[in-house]
Amino acid sequence: xxxxxAANDYTKMMKEMMxxxxxxxxxxxxxxxxxxxxxxxxSKVALEAADKSTEISTKWTKETLAKFGEMSVAKEDPTDYTxxxxxxxxxxxxxxxEAMAAFAEVAKKVQMETVELMLAAGKDISEDASAAVxxxxxxxxxxxxxxxxxxx
Length: 152
Hints:
The protein is mainly α. The protein has helices spanning 2-20, 25-71, 78-151.
């Protein structure tokens, strides 16, 4: 029986100790909201980039197919096939360069928006953490003073 009494005493002591240092869940809720907001904004950036990249790919594919269609038309003179292949290769090189430049612009925009979001989130998280630490310090100090006064 002594073991059960000792366990109950330990449990009671832990409850009293934890009660003396209350945890404010507001700081955790604020941190969660900040994280959820950041995730939402980052998802929006990623989805916009995916949408724009799909548009670029679709345009590039349609233009390639159109040029391929022009190249595959039957020719009168065998040398016309060589010219058609050369024209296709030249057009394909130009379209590829344009598509790569467009993809690079999308990547650059994503990078800039991500940096802006991370800087803003860092500031928000820092402010939330600072407020939580100040509040926790005040609560711990008050609880310590209360415990000291009760012990006297």
